[in-house]
């Protein structure tokens, strides 16, 4: 199917799955033009099945995206002309939105990195006539840290300058050792690098009704990707970050994130905290 002179990119990735739920965040500007070039048909059945299990899946993903954007804006104030690294960026057009939102005096450069779909992403950028010299779309395996860092540095990333690292939707798929290995490459002596990430909490820690749906949702996702999804307690994440000597930790469960963003809780009320938590820290 042709759109705007190029083939729509048809993908079956978890990145595409997430985008099907959060299209409302891209209803204007470059984000809307970008999404018009992606064919989501391969993930439609899975999206429908997860929505059948619980509509909260969509709400959680929307809150995650919105909260990460909120934290980016808060952390970008700390240093002028920051570098931003979006690791395992997938298909998300977050980088496009950041170039639209932040002027050059605030945002020096953006590096979006992934092991797949980066060439196709560049083709979509060309199709929507997007060009910003600050944005670098790079292909590298983030678990191969030598390849990751050499690719970043070759593109202009400066390890001596403050950076904001976006690590969204990743830790569920990798081991604790891989997480620590990646993060150690961004540790700075003066802790001027900030990280924003999310993680899934253990379903059995949720209220009874919520935990049953969460476990069914996890089983469905794990069957789709063919591997287990990592879950953590907040204490476990804090212990991992202590190995990085991280500081300035700010943690938000879904209830806290909804309140910060909306000034009230409509979805996450009472004991309902959600399956995801979002954390920012400095390393």
From TrEMBL:
Q: List the protein's name.
A: O-methyltransferase involved in polyketide biosynthesis
Q: What's one GO BP annotation on this UniProt entry?
A: methylation
Supply the alphabetized keyword list: Methyltransferase, Transferase
- Entries under InterPro entries matching the protein: Ppm1/Ppm2/Tcmp, SAM-dependent_MTases_sf
Q: Which domain of life is it from?
A: Bacteria
Q: Does the keyword Disulfide bond apply?
A: no
Which GO MF terms are attached to this record?
methyltransferase activity
Q: Quote the Pfam families the UniProt record gives.
A: LCM
Gene3D superfamilies from the UniProt entry: Vaccinia Virus protein VP39
